[in-house]
Amino acid sequence: MSNRTFTMIKPDATSKGYTGAILDQIIKAGFTVKAMKWIKLSEEQAGLFYDIHRARPFFGELVDFMSSGPIVAAILEKENAVADFRELIGATNPANAAEGTIRKNFAASIGENAVHGSDSDENAVIEGDFFFSKLERF
Ligand code: CMP
Fold first, then answer.
1. Is-catalytic flag, 53?
2. Is the pLDDT assigned to residue 93 strictly greater than 80?
């Protein structure tokens, strides 16, 4: 089991001014930031990041949304990071997210769901490598 995961605070949350509150909830839950950047993806970059969803009907909407404004990308560390972070953020659709989770607190819809969290240790490495060089993490 790896102790790292990858997250993005998405454009809906950064534009509504939720970045600080979301980071506060993440850090209070015991995660340590190992890398972080404030960045705006191009449509091409958003499409590459979500390449696994290219055949899905919502792919175009997802790419438009994820390239619509700045995001915060980060690598987080904690024991059992992937599973614990997914519990902290709640279900993909905020309508189904548990009380107190980040998506319940800050997300509006399944498309604009405030945060991303890696779904496996393998994807956490791939996604972290997409954004960060060795020099940008510690
Ligand atoms: P995320 O965890 O970042 O990974 C893939 C994203 O696709 C997901 O969050 C949602 O934001 C988005 N997504 C998944 N299902 C749908 C859907 N049915 N309609 C629109 N967006 C979706």
1. no
2. yes
β 115-117/32-39 pair status = unpaired
- Please answer whether residues 72 and 36 qualify as being in contact, where contact means their C-beta atoms are separated by less than 8 angstroms: yes
Count: domains in the chain: 1
Is the model's pLDDT at 19 over the cut of 80?
yes
- Which of 18, 47, 116, 128 is catalytic? The answer is 116
Share the mean pLDDT of the chain: 97
Mutate to test the pocket of ligand 1, among 51, 64, 101, 113 (most ligand atoms within 8 A of CB): 113
Query: What CATH number should be reported for the domain holding residue 83?
Result: 3.30.70.141
pLDDT at site 2: 79
Pocket of ligand 1 (CB under 6 A): 53, 58, 61-62, 92, 110-111, 113, 116
Rounded Cα distance, 45 and 40, in Å = 9
